[in-house]
Amino acid sequence: MKMRAFVTASLFVLSLIVAAQVVKADDPMLVNIPFAFTAGNVTLPAGEYRVQKLDGSSAVVLISCADASASTMVLSNAAQAKDIQTQSKLVFKRYDNRYFLSQVWAAGSIRGRELLKSHAEKEIAQSARLETAKEVTLIARLSPAH
After folding, report:
1. How many CB atoms sit inside 10 A of residue 144's CB?
2. Which residues pair with 71 in a beta bridge?
3. Whole-angstrom Cα distance, residue 120 to residue 110?
4. Whole-structure pTM value
């Protein structure tokens, strides 16, 4: 009987830890982006941005400037990493001096979001066929709860 209670309590604690990580993975992130970039069909200026999913199960990622000067919503696909992410981060594709937001990853999760390529990015990628896009990764921090 004691063993059964111990196993039940252990499973309960484990489920709480997993649930906390899932909630943490959906928390908004803040990141300082030192360059203009394109997300979806919108080009946004350099600045501090809040990045989050529209809601827990949504494919829509909301990107808004901290000073409310710019924002956009973009569609994304689910992405999965081989390992749990140790840091929240945004990944950009860089073609010469143009940056396109490509992926959003939250610390503590193997799941992330991959943004759909815009028409402009497809055109640039095709014209730069001989050159591969370089990846630029920026580390994000969790946004304090409001």
Report:
1. 8
2. 64
3. 29
4. 0.75
Say what the pLDDT of residue 14 is: 41
pLDDT at 8 over 60: no
Instruction: Round to whole Å and give the CA distance between 140 and 48.
Output: 10
Q: Which residue has the tokens 């000067």?
A: 69
Phi, psi for 108 (deg, rounded to 5): 85, 10
Instruction: Show the tokens assigned to 47.
Output: 């600045």
Question: At residue 18, what are phi and psi to the nearest 5 degrees?
Answer: -65, -45
Structure tokens at 99: 């940056």
Residue type, 40: G
Residues 6+ apart with CB under 8 A from 55: none
Our CA dihedral for 59, 142, 104, 73, rounded to 10 degrees, sits at 50
Query: Residue 28 is which amino acid?
Result: P
- Within the chain, where are the H helices? 2-25, 119-127
Give residue 20's pLDDT.
38
State how far the Cα of 32 lies from the Cα of 48, in Å rounded to an integer: 4
Q: For 52-66, write each residue's pLDDT tens digit.
A: 998 777 899 999 998
Q: Which token pair is 65?
A: 């400037």
Residue with tokens 């400037």: 65
